[in-house]
Amino acid sequence: MKLKLSSLSLSLLAALSYQAAADESRTAAPLETIEVTGDFQRESLQTLSASASVMGEVEMTHRGASYLDELLNSTANVNFTAGASRGRFVQIRGVGLRSQFVDPITPSVGMLVDGINYSGLGGSALLFDIDQVTLYRGPQGTRFGADAMGGLIDLQSHAPTQDTDLKLRIGAGNYNSYEAGLAAGTGLTENTAARFSLYQRGSDGYVDNLYLDKPTQDQEERLARFKLSSQLTDALTVNLAVHHINIDNGYDGFTLDNTRNSVANQPGKDTQKSDAFALSALYTGLSAFDIELQGTGLQADTEYSYDEDWTCHDATQAELCAAGLHPDHYVGFDNYLRDHERGSLEMKLKDKQGDWVIGAYAQRRDVALSRRNATFKSHYDVSNQAVFGQKVTHLNEQTRLITGLRVERYDSEYTDSNGFAIDQDDTMVGGKLALEYQVVPRTMIYTSLSRGYKVGGANGEALAKAKDDGFSIPASAFSFEPEYLWNAEFGVKGQSEDKKHTLAVTAFYMEREDMQLKQWQVSGVQFAGFISNAGKGENYGLEIEGQRLITDQLTLNYSLGYLDTKIEDFVTTSGENFDGREQAQAPKYQYAFSADYSVLENLVVTLGLEGKDDYFFSDSHNEQAPSQNLINASVSYYGEQWSLTAWGRNLADRDVPVRGFYIMNDPRIGYETSRYVQYGEPRVFGLTFSYDL
Predict the structure, then answer these.
(1) CA nearest neighbour of 652 among 636, 624, 629
(2) Which Gene3D superfamilies match (predicted)?
(3) Which residue ranges make up each domain of the chain?
(4) CA dihedral 124, 125, 127, 131 (to 10 degrees)
(5) Dihedral (C-alpha) 595, 599, 604, 610: value to the nearest 10 degrees?
(6) Per the confidence metrics, is the pTM higher than 0.70?
(7) Collapsed DSSP state (helix, strand, coil) of residue 14
(8) In 3D, which of 646, 636, 539, 555 has the Cα closest to residue 595?
(9) pLDDT digits (tens, 9 = 90+) for 271-319
(10) C-alpha to C-alpha distance for 579 and 568, rounded to whole angstroms
């Protein structure tokens, strides 16, 4: 399989190189060179020995995207789940969390915004004034550690410059959606520049509560960012980023009849109020190396709540509340209030030529949970320290060897109001070994082997259920072990001689050791979720992404992903054998094509098609999301300093599930185990006006 994928990669690249000669007659401008910060340095995406995708402001505008999940379908082998007001749980190559309820968790996919670690706080991924979103596939074990075993999403907002600039964005759409954003930047002195941005967005959402006669999955999101950059001396640069986020969204996603019409009398919330900062300093005054320091801090209060029975209980509304008035009905409401506190400090010593880096990292995270009006409380305190390093060895003019290593120590303490106290400590090792060969200045091939890891933890909900509700849960389910992931890649990246076609092809094979899987123990209408370890998992596949400037007027963007996954040695506590089954959230194929056509000099029409195969919702049952094929489009008119874009997503109005369960919740059918799904966005469209000075 690997040899076939490698041969395909080389064949595609050869075709790309030969194509350039046939295209010399075309006069279109070459494609833009995209830079990313991958292996601890700023470099072209085409020279990075990793599979990565970059999404910029043009793509965000054409898709009408205000939040991360509205971009992800355009990338290969990336999926997401909701179970909340937003699709804030991301999976890369089938690796990633799908939800969070009682237990503290470590994300499998990390998320940075301006260098601040927002992993596990996906509501932070608002896109206004974001310059670039970079998605790295596979373990980022040297650079980022345990939070990025499956990959990393890096959002960077616009940096302050000496130039005075102003950005205004106003938009409106169906479902009474609106947005308004303002960003401005300028030089304060000859050596100091600042930028701030303010943004607010709202929508009625896509759920109508027939009992309460109002939308109950509405969205109200506010964001403020401030950035400061100062060249204090010739050798010392200081940067500051400050964020404030206020998200007050409703959550009412599931119904007994699997529609968007709820009858819940206690709809929930999905909120986040957070303040965060990152302060960094770069000193270049030494002859041998540069010193980089960064400190970050974050405080966030979140609420996740929902009506457990999804019904009303009003005798005056007998038809609407039929399930809630059934003699066997139950009434339930669940809420999870969390107080998050994080702080980190990192120091790096970097070679002047970018050939080596060594560093040390320390972080502390504290999460306090209060559930069901404080009847249950837990406290999870984690500290970790790491040392890491990476070396680039130039074997010859065309060949580089990259070696990286990270050793990380985690110490955690879990306590709760049930009297449980669990201390765990893990020392884990990750890293990267890569060989890069620059065939010609515009073509690189690479092969790499990387290792990522994810810490173990405690299953507080399983402990509580076993103690209070008499659930038959084995002692082995009270905690779970760390997971390791080995990732082998072969990649080809190139650009045609006329710079009108860029192409990246990656073949990968991943092996997951002690794979962490979520499963559920069900007893009547009560259930408990917990994480356990399977023997291992296997994931392999292919990613193809590219951009082709066909004529002066027409540009084609495309991505294709193939993913084959398998669970090995996993039997649930209820006795179901999932050995050999595909992993959850891992569609076998994904595709995205979009064409930008300049009808006139200032008028651009974009048409996009995207889709994915069916996939399992969970690793503990066999319900699947259906395959999906979506149509997106936009029309943009560009003035000298302004633009107006009419955009639409899911124009065929397909019902796309973004979360699914197989549980008992309807008394009218004797609490028979059934499939229940939450739908993502239906057909949405709007108009966005932007002004840039």
Answers:
(1) 629
(2) TonB-dependent receptor, beta-barrel domain (2.40.170.20)
(3) 2-692
(4) 110
(5) -20
(6) yes
(7) helix
(8) 555
(9) 999 999 999 999 999 999 999 999 999 999 999 999 999 999 999 999 9
(10) 5
